[in-house]
Amino acid sequence: MIYYDTITFTDIFKKSILKLMPEAIDPLVLFLTIAIAFLVGLGIFFVYRKNFLGVVYDHSFNISLVIMTMLTAVIIVTISTNITLSLGMVGALSIVRYRTAVKNPLDLMFMFWAIASGIAIGAQFYYIAVITLFLVALALSALRRIRNDDHLYLLIINYDADSDLEENILRQLEKRRPKLRSKIVKKGMCELTLEVYLKTENINLTSEISALNGVKDVTLVQYRGSYEI
Q1: Stated pTM of the model
Q2: What is the DSSP letter of 21?
């Protein structure tokens, strides 16, 4: 008499789980992964510093991009050898809430770039992270040249509101392509914010405006589209 073993779905599931049990991670592979993640993160570091478009450069945020790339690669290497750990990691990360607000959309893009590079490196697709580094850096450089806003400045002028200074100021700035950004009047004082175009860093412009009778103070700030009044 011939006996046939009955294979159930439970047996198949157990065998598949046994095949996915954690394997030993080669220390050399781990070291190579972290080293490549550091180099790619360092490349993102320099690209961010070169193409920064905000007002105040945040060095700590730029450093976090490098560490984020390395840590993401370590997480991917760790969970790639254990299905149970990967499911637990997904559950653990789903309850984490990051309260830091990112105001600049470009900063959010750099964070996503660092995470994506870490995932690719952790999965040992090193060439994807390296090629992406060069292509994204080239694209950012090209787009930054197209915009060419390095000659835009914000001119903030405080003067007496009961005088005819505003017409004189606009007349003197006629060659600078002035554009009104805001005008605030408070108890006899007026604050005028203008966007002006300067081919060179003409610091004498502030002296010329402040020499007008009735002008209290003048501030000149390079404008990159993210200055908040």
Answers
A1: 0.60
A2: S
The Cα-based distances of 42 to 36, 48, 70 in angstroms read 10, 10, 10
| Spatial distance between the Cα atoms of 46 and 57, rounded to a whole number of angstroms | 13
Look-up: residue for tokens 């017409």?
Answer: 167
Q: Which tokens belong to 100?
A: 């830091």
Whole-number Å distance between alpha carbons of 156 and 121 = 47
DSSP assignment, residue 205?
H
**Domain region containing 174:** 152-222
Residue carrying the six token digits 């000149």: 220
Q: What is the mean pLDDT of each run of 10 residues along the chain (229 residues)?
A: 53 52 71 93 92 75 91 85 62 59 79 91 91 92 69 77 72 74 79 76 69 77 56
Same structural domain for residues 89 and 181?
A: no
Report pLDDT for 100.
64
Distance CA 26, CA 117 (A): 21
